[in-house]
Predict the structure.
Amino acid sequence: MQAVVSYKASKLPFVVLVIACLATVFLVPLVGMGHVGWGDIKAGLTDPGASVAGRIFWQVRVPRLLLGMLAGATLAGAGVAFQSMFRNPLASPFTLGVSSGAGLGAALAMGLAGTWAWLASGWAVSAAAFVGAMGSVLIVYGLAGVRRGFSSNTLLLAGVSIGYICSAVILLVQYMSSQAVTNATVRWLMGTVDPLTGYSVFTYAMPLVLLGLAVLAWHWREMDLLMMGDLVAAGRGVNVRSVRRWIYFSASVMVAAVVAHTGPIAFVGLVVPHLVRMAVGPTHGRLLPGALLGGAVFLPVCDVIAANAMRWVSHAATPAGQLSALSIPVGVLTSLIGGVFFLGMLLGKRSETIL
């Protein structure tokens, strides 16, 4: 009880997260190849044709920052939801095959682009990825409803099974496709927050994300009770099956809307909720908004590091006047951070609290 009271009384973690979020908004777009000054930023806003650096800032860096913040917040919030539903801090937004379904849709679109040229566009790939993700969600839900009701164990097994099937079909599509299609599919599956369509991506992703977040926020008390077990939640008047269904669909739709444009970005929904939970406590009234803020900071910072790390490392060896344009997909960096993080937790003193 004392721990719960101390978590309620402490506003410091949220103050830190808000400050970090504001710092991310103002500082991250300034980092990249080529210097962007405040004069360029103003010129790009008032007269886009006056400054190349200003156009790069407003048409490339700012949309990339906003998509990174949206994707990070969405994956972290969905991670909190799935962890409450499964009562396991190692559950992730991709546990139920959402990413595999999206990858299959994107791979099929890229593979069939040679037959139907309109599938080669970025919007067609994103649409196919969203359809694949939602198809996977509906299949998992149908399988979970057929056997023993909508229980968390059945849902988990169905999601893992569909994920493996989708992954196998993706490998088959890559094997039967050309080298160019295989390379494009692999790069898409690595994950990126570089929006090829500028700000228009938010017109399609943002409404679904906001709708899903509203549903999760409405059920935060039920998520607290689900963490205590189905029997306890039912004894407190919670319709466990209905609440689990709402959490499942809202979190899955959020993830599908984002992954369709970014590809699967691993470990954000694992690392961020785990870190925020240690700072703000397990109550979802604090954990959910804390995870949203943490994800909105974590992914853009990882992206700016991944995009510039190779240039920073090779800058000293690069001839004067030339800059290396090599960049690492952000999904590679988040996977590396996630693996190292959980390995450290496993070997540390708190290893028993993870499992």
Notes: Confidence is low (pLDDT under 50) at residues 1-6, 320-324. The CA atoms of residues 171 and 310 lie 29 Å apart. The chain is about 75% helix and 0% strand.
